[in-house]
């Protein structure tokens, strides 16, 4: 049985997962949108989001799990009496989405691989790299030529002024300023060493 480390309060994580049996997680645009609705419900109370990307058969997230005190305050706002472990909130998200897909597409059983992947990001140098890696995923998979062309990621949000729950100002600070963020996304790069780190 595979043992996975629990998500620690106050820590940054790259969280990613894919569908079982090479199936698509997102079959049409409304699936992406509904996943984000469920994400807001289950994950916003327990984590800050810095980057995200939803592709056909997998997704990537960069989050910071809130401290216990921050989660307690959030749950008081939501009038929730019991605080569950952060990894269980992600499990609840995946279970709720699976139920919706099963009902909507007449399928049965699991949809996501288990356990979901998580990588602790405990070096500041990796935060900027992971943000760009996540935003460039659609490019690397051939869906577009630049992250700005892909609608189901946080890149467009990060360079706009529209209201968002993504921690945009913090993301910009990883790159010093918004112009440097944009400049850093002008060209793709070789992510092999980063992927080796994320998969280690």
Total beta strand runs: 4
Please give the CATH architecture: 2-Layer Sandwich
Whole-number count of domains: 1
Q: How would you name the CATH homologous superfamily?
A: Transposase IS200-like
N-to-C series of helices and strands: EHEEHHEHHHHHH
What number is the mean pLDDT? 90
Percentage of residues in helical conformation: 40-55%
Q: And the CATH topology? A: Alpha-Beta Plaits
Outline type:
globular
Distance N to C terminus? 18 Å
SS-based structural class?
alpha+beta
Number of helices: 9
Widest sheet, order of strands: 2-3-1-4
Classified by CATH, the class is Alpha Beta
Percent strand: 5-15%
Which runs of at least 5 residues are low in confidence (pLDDT < 50)?
none
Q: What's the structural blueprint in terms of helices and strands?
A:
Blueprint: E1 12-18, H1 29-42, E2 47-54, E3 58-65, H2 68-78, H3 86-105, E4 117-120, H4 124-135, H5 137-140, H6 155-158, H7 168-174, H8 178-184, H9 192-198
Antiparallel strand pairs: 1-3, 1-4, 2-3
Helix pairs in contact: 1-3
């Amino acid at each position: 049985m595979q043992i996975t480390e629990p998500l620690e309060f106050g820590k940054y994580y790259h969280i990613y997962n894919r569908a079982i049996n090479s199936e698509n997680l997102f079959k049409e645009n409304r699936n992406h949108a509904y996943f984000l609705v469920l994400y807001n419900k289950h994950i916003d109370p327990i984590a800050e989001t810095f980057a995200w990307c939803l592709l056909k058969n997998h997704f990537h997230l960069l989050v910071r799990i809130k401290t216990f005190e921050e989660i307690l305050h959030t749950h008081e706002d939501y009038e929730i009496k019991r605080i569950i472990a952060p990894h269980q909130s992600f499990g609840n998200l995946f279970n709720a989405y699976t139920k919706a897909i099963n009902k909507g597409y007449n399928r049965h059983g699991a949809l996501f691989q288990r356990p979901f992947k998580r990588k602790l990001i405990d070096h500041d140098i990796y935060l900027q790299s992971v943000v760009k890696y996540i935003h460039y995923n659609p490019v690397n998979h051939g869906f577009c030529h630049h992250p700005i062309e892909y609608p189901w990621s946080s890149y467009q949000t990060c360079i706009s002024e529209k209201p968002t729950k993504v921690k945009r100002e913090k993301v910009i600070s990883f790159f010093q300023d918004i112009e440097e963020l944009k400049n850093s996304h002008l060209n793709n790069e070789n992510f092999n060493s980063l992927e080796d780190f994320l998969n280690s």
